[in-house]
From TrEMBL, chain A:
Protein name: Zf-HC2 domain-containing protein
Keywords: Transcription, Transcription regulation
Biased composition (Low complexity): 132-146
Chain residue ranges for the region called Disordered: 1-185
Bias type Pro residues, positions: 39-49, 159-178
Protein's UniProt keywords contain Metal-binding: no
Record field: transmembrane: none
InterPro entries: Anti_sigma_zinc_sf, DinB/YfiT-like, Znf_put
Domain Putative zinc-finger, first and last residues per copy: 197-227
Basic and acidic residues composition bias: residue spans: 78-112
Key word Transport present: no
From TrEMBL, chain B:
Family of this protein: Belongs to the sigma-70 factor family. ECF subfamily.
InterPro entries, per database record: RNA_pol_sigma-70-like (IPR039425), RNA_pol_sigma-70_dom (IPR014284), RNA_pol_sigma70_r2 (IPR007627), RNA_pol_sigma70_r4_t2 (IPR013249), RNA_pol_sigma_r2 (IPR013325), RNA_pol_sigma_r3/r4-like (IPR013324), WH-like_DNA-bd_sf (IPR036388)
Official protein name in the record: Sigma-70 family RNA polymerase sigma factor
Family annotation (Pfam families): Sigma70_r2, Sigma70_r4_2
Gene Ontology molecular-function annotations: DNA binding; sigma factor activity
Domain RNA polymerase sigma factor 70 region 4 type: 126-171
Lineage of producing organism: Bacteria, Bacillati, Actinomycetota, Actinomycetes, Kitasatosporales
Superkingdom as given in the UniProt entry: Bacteria
Domain called RNA polymerase sigma-70 region: residue spans: 28-94
Keywords recorded for this protein, A-Z: Sigma factor, Transcription, Transcription regulation
Gene Ontology terms describing biological process: DNA-templated transcription initiation
PANTHER family: RNA POLYMERASE ECF-TYPE SIGMA FACTO, RNA POLYMERASE SIGMA FACTOR SIGZ
NCBIfam families: sigma70-ECF (TIGR02937)
Keyword DNA damage on entry: no
Length: 559, 192
């Protein structure tokens, strides 16, 4: 396209040159009255108010060709029904008629309600219609419009059968004649042609006031060149949504990437342990796509188990992404990447999050530029994956300090992947959108991380007096009492947890208890989303050991 | 709507792909997968077929990063062109040798290709139009602001906001015009 070069190349490029005959329309356009049924025709946009259409239908070739725009109304938001279908559901959250992704080849059909093009539904507002019979003689409506004169009168009766009934003014209002004489707020304003013309873009996008909408539509009845442009611009609105008519299947990503790497092996591969983080961050990022301001500010409740009880903290979608970003930042700084909180930032995840929410109140309370944090979080995530790809094998064991504990970086990546999934789940729940569990290999790696962390957490809880003391002393490296953790599901498996000391060896034959639960229940347990004592379905054996392990699992969660 | 990929990003991505960086491939996918999938879906109207085109296009780019010439336009536009070409090729092939006896009429076939081309051009126009125009359209369309609010958000006069909205749509409407060279001759579009 033109318009990439000079300082203001678009200025005047298309200024006033768009008359009816400028030839920019596609074939078959501009004169055909069959546009509404045309597949690429203007989006069927039901009129918000029957004003211009009902009464003063457009003359000639354009008759019925351009549905009137529906100005957005603030209060008719997400009550539209939500189905868990991909694509369509998000629409309803973005607003009722912003229908972005109904079908791949349609433009945004903004109207989700039945098209009202043909039915002269009665206007809900009691205001008199500007073009209703009584109003017609008012020349003021057309103002200085020069070519306005010829048509109005004879047109009316032809195509609008029952115009009068809906417009009988309600009795509480002034005597019938009076309101028509005085320009009411919605009567077409006598705007000059140039101004009306300049409004066409805003009109096509339903981005002008009701009064202006009415004025433009009245004008279109009489100005063929504006009418032609209006049709064309309205049609162009349908082209605005060219991307992602459907949410992509997250599994497609791994298939496509694996296919590529099969065709040409990477010379700089991504470490296997970084794969879960890469995939989970991409999945969450896809969920965030297309979120409007309101959704970025949607309240989200973060829940975790603080060691003694379930606790929670309220923030927004943007606040959650900021939280993920600053905690990912711990890994970033370990790798020598810049800290998103700057130098001298606190070290623990909680303190970092509080610091971020404190300094970026917008993120937590919803006043800043929503969604800007997404880009920062994502860029940092890409940098993390890229850095460990280049770093070589040794990096996997590099310690990442989490305040009062540390994880080797390979586990820190798994931990971040798990956090990403947990918080994506929180966000999805807050905006009422479905979210699937991770790919089974990734899920299994995350559960494995939890299982490996359990003995240490158990020991910590013992030191804090929150768990029962060890039953016997076990020498490091020798088998001791063991709990069998059995997780059902594609990402599940069997894990054996040493009960007496983190240094002891777990041994299946030493198992004194079994906890069996499915992977979803494990997720809820380890993310601190359910009380630990209610998490598991199948329990058998030593009740004290079971209780200690369930509470330790819940304690793995944190803000 | 648009990915604001500066040319520098494009060149750097090309270098990283050429170097065989798996992380770059993942980033490329995250940025363009929905574009590719959607364009392919417009042409083929089939989820599985669009998945397949997505695999083929990314496979091609990963194997041939040097085929992209930054002088000729953005990486995004190049990938959109590859997708379009591959999808149209697949559609024509499937129509000449229908496996399931499900054929389109010639007119319907050409119409679908035409619509998909319009969509691809529209994507190109939106992503390459001057940023002030695009910002105004995004505010009005995606954020549902009226032009006065858009003017305030952009720090411009209401006149200017109206002008940008109109101009942006005028630019976009040119997607409906077939540029003379863009009409694919029959059989055009090699397999990737």
């Amino acid at each position: 396209m033109s318009g990439r070069g000079g300082p203001d190349p678009y200025d005047d490029a298309y200024g006033e040159s768009s008359g009816p005959g400028d030839g920019r329309d596609g074939p078959g356009r501009g004169g055909e009255p069959d546009l509404p049924s045309h597949p690429a025709g203007p989006p069927r946009i039901p009129p918000q108010r029957p004003a211009a259409e009902d009464s003063g239908h457009w003359p000639g070739a354009l008759d019925g060709g351009i549905p009137a725009p529906r100005p957005p109304t603030a209060d008719e938001t997400p009550t539209a029904k939500r189905t868990p279908e991909r694509g369509s559901e998000r629409d309803s959250k973005l607003g009722p008629e912003r229908g972005s992704e109904r079908g791949p080849e349609r433009g945004p059909e903004r109207g989700s309600e039945p098209a009202a093009d043909s039915e002269p539904e009665s206007a809900p507002e009691p205001r008199p219609d500007p073009a209703a019979p009584g109003a017609e003689p008012e020349p003021a409506a057309l103002g200085p419009e020069p070519e306005a004169n010829p048509e109005p009168e004879p047109e009316r009766p032809a195509s609008v059968p029952p115009s009068p009934p809906p417009y009988t003014p309600p009795s509480p209002y002034a005597p019938p004649a009076a309101p028509l004489a005085a320009p009411t707020p919605s009567a077409p304003l006598p705007l000059p042609h140039d101004l009306l013309r300049s409004l066409l873009g805003a009109w096509a996008l339903t981005a002008c006031s009701q009064e202006e909408t009415a004025a433009v539509e009245a004008h279109l009845n009489h100005c063929p060149s504006c009418a032609e442009e209006a049709l064309r611009l309205r049609d162009a609105v349908g082209l605005l949504h060219t991307e992602h008519s459907l949410d992509l299947d997250p599994m497609l990503r791994s298939r496509v990437l694996a296919g590529c790497l099969g065709r040409r092996p990477a010379r700089i591969p991504m470490p296997g342990w970084a794969g879960a983080y890469d995939a989970e961050a991409a999945r969450l990022d896809a969920l965030l796509r297309d979120m409007g301001e309101a959704e970025w500010r949607a309240p989200v409740r973060l829940k975790w188990f603080d060691g003694r009880r379930l606790t929670s903290r309220d923030t927004t979608v943007a606040g959650v992404i900021g939280h993920l970003m600053v905690v990912d930042g711990i890994v970033a700084t370990s790798l020598g990447l810049p800290d998103p909180l700057g130098a001298d930032a606190p070290g623990s995840p909680q303190a970092r999050t509080e610091a971020y929410w404190h300094h970026e109140p917008g993120a937590a309370y919803g006043s800043g530029p929503p969604g800007a944090v997404r880009e920062l979080w994502r860029e940092q995530g890409h940098a993390l994956v890229r850095t460990v790809s280049f770093a070589g094998r040794g990096v996997a064991e590099l310690d990442v300090p989490y305040g009062d504990f540390a994880l080797p970086i390979r586990d820190a990546f798994l931990d971040r992947a798990l956090e990403c999934w947990v918080h994506a789940g929180d966000i999805a729940e807050a905006i009422d959108y479905p979210y699937e569990p991770p790919a089974s290999t990734h899920l299994k790696a995350m559960i494995d991380l939890c299982a490996r962390l359990l003995p240490g957490t158990l020991a910590e809880r013992r030191r804090a007096g929150l768990a029962s003391p060890p039953r016997r002393l076990v020498e490091a490296g020798t088998p001791g009492r063991t709990l069998h953790l059995q997780v059902e599901g594609t990402g599940g498996g069997d894990w054996y947890i040493p009960l007496d000391s983190p240094a002891a060896m777990a041994a299946p034959e030493e198992a004194v208890a079994t906890i069996a639960l499915d992977q979803e229940a494990f997720y809820l347990l380890a993310s601190g989303h359910v009380p630990p004592q209610e998490a598991a379905a199948g329990l058998s054996g030593d009740t004290e050991a079971i209780r200690d392990v369930l509470f330790a699992a819940a304690s793995l969660s944190r803000l | 709507m648009a990915n604001d990929a500066p040319p520098r990003w494009d060149r750097r991505m090309q270098q990283r792909l050429a170097r065989g960086e798996a992380a770059a491939l993942a980033e490329l996918y995250d940025r363009f997968a929905s574009l590719v999938h959607n364009l392919a879906h417009r042409v083929l109207e089939d989820e599985t077929a669009a998945d397949r085109i997505t695999r083929e296009v990314f496979g091609y780019v990963w194997e041939n990063p040097d085929a992209y010439d930054p002088q000729q336009g953005s990486l995004r536009a190049w990938i959109a062109m590859l997708t379009q070409r591959q999808a149209v090729h697949r559609l024509r092939t499937s129509q000449t040798a229908p496996a399931d006896g499900d054929t389109l009429s010639t007119e319907a076939l050409e119409e679908r290709i035409r619509e998909a081309s319009v969509a691809a051009r529209a994507d190109y126009i939106v992503t390459s139009m001057p940023a002030p125009l695009r910002a105004a359209l995004e505010l009005a369309y995606f954020d549902r602001r009226d032009y006065r609010q858009a003017a305030a958000a952009l720090g411009v006069t209401e006149d200017e906001a109206r002008r940008r909205l109109r101009l942006g749509l005028q630019l976009l409407s040119t997607a409906h015009v077939q540029p003379p060279r863009a009409v694919s001759p029959p059989g055009y579009g090699r397999a990737l």
